[in-house]
Design brief:
With 214 residues, the protein is α+β, with helices and mostly antiparallel strands. Helices cover 32% and strands 24% of the residues. The strands form 4 sheets. Strands 1-2-3-6-11 form a 5-stranded antiparallel sheet. It starts with a helix and ends with a strand.
Amino acid sequence: MSYVQGIGTLAAGVALGVLATSTYFRLWDGRASANEGALLRFSPDFTTQVIRRLDPNFAVCYDQRTRVPLWTLEHLTRETITMGKNVDRGNSIFREDNRIHTFFRSTNQDYSGSGFDRGHMIPSADHRSSQESMNNTFFLSNIAPQVGKGFNRDKWAHLERYARALVKHYIGGLWILTGPLYLPRLDPTDNKLYVKYQVIGPNQVAVPTHFFKI
């Protein structure tokens, strides 16, 4: 690349950065146009991760790029897994997290007809001492797309039950870290590794390739 080409590329990059910065602040006071908003909607925010303490016993780190949690942390105790009076999972509904900007928020529409379950990273059955705590696990900022039959409703559910069984043996409870993974796979056409994942819905919610629970 020549000196002139290099200066031209740098100038273009600076111009785009200034435009993005200007648009970002204009979004918040309502002066940005729809076209300007599109510049940022599917691009990372300045801070791509938002940490939300949804309940006294659990928190999520939400990834605004993928529209799913980066990780979740919960304190699981004998008290949190004990069913409280009048607590009913049927009264809990999946709902948007209004603390996440609409540009980076997942919605129920994203999951509708996708073929994937709305999979809890922090299970509702882990926090059923009160209706409020159970409800707080249904924020979509705590949810990621999961295959239903064979995983979310089977193997993953078995792992969650195992964690609840373990907590009965520890007076202080357990701290559990859960989240998605996007692991590389070998492409047989060129024998190279690539990280590829599906996205669903109008907000292009990422479908993780794997999950972890520690």
